[in-house]
């Protein structure tokens, strides 16, 4: 008999980090802004995940954050959340 437990496990969300200079990383790997939507779409499909977490430096303009949210939704992410960075990492990134 199957327990069904595997279906209830939460998949790890995709993490997008944006630095003050607007450099981007997806799950720790650099990505060019022009390739963000395609990279997110491919990752969403291959990982079967619908949650994206944005960690954006506070110096990134609000309008750019809105664009990132729109890009995530265009790539098929149904849920977009904001994450925080530890203070030491926030100063480096």
Present the secondary structure layout.
Blueprint: H1 5-8, E1 14-18, E2 24-26, E3 29-31, H2 36-47, E4 51-56, H3 62-74, E5 79-82, H4 87-92
Parallel strand pairs: 1-4, 4-5
Antiparallel strand pairs: 1-2, 2-3
Rg estimate, integer Å = 14 Å
Low-confidence parts: 3-9
Order of helices and strands: HEEEHEHEH
Number of helices: 4
Shape: globular
The beta-strand count equals 5
Sheet having the most strands: 5 strands, mixed
Q: End-to-end distance, in Å?
A: 48 Å
**Domains (count):** 1
Mean pLDDT: 86
Query: What is the percentage of strand-forming residues?
Result: 15-25%
Q: Order of strands across the biggest sheet?
A: 3-2-1-4-5
Please name the CATH architecture: 2-Layer Sandwich
Name of the level-1 CATH class = Alpha Beta
Explain what this protein looks like in three dimensions.
- It is a single chain.
- The chain is of the alpha/beta class.
- It has a single domain, classed as Nucleotidyltransferase, domain 5, CATH 3.30.420.270.
- The protein has four helices and five strands, in the order αβββαβαβα.
- The protein has a five-stranded mixed sheet with strand order 3-2-1-4-5, with helices on one face.
- Strand 2 and strand 3 form a beta hairpin.
């Amino acid at each position: 008999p199957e327990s069904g437990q595997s279906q209830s496990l939460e998949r790890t969300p995709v993490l997008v980090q944006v630095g003050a200079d607007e450099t981007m990383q997806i799950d720790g790997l650099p990505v060019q802004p022009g390739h963000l939507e395609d990279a997110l779409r491919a990752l969403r499909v291959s990982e079967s995940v619908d949650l994206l977490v944005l960690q954006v430096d506070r110096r990134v303009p609000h309008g750019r954050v809105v664009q990132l949210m729109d890009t995530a939704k265009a790539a098929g992410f149904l849920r977009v959340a904001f994450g925080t960075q530890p203070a030491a990492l926030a100063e480096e990134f």
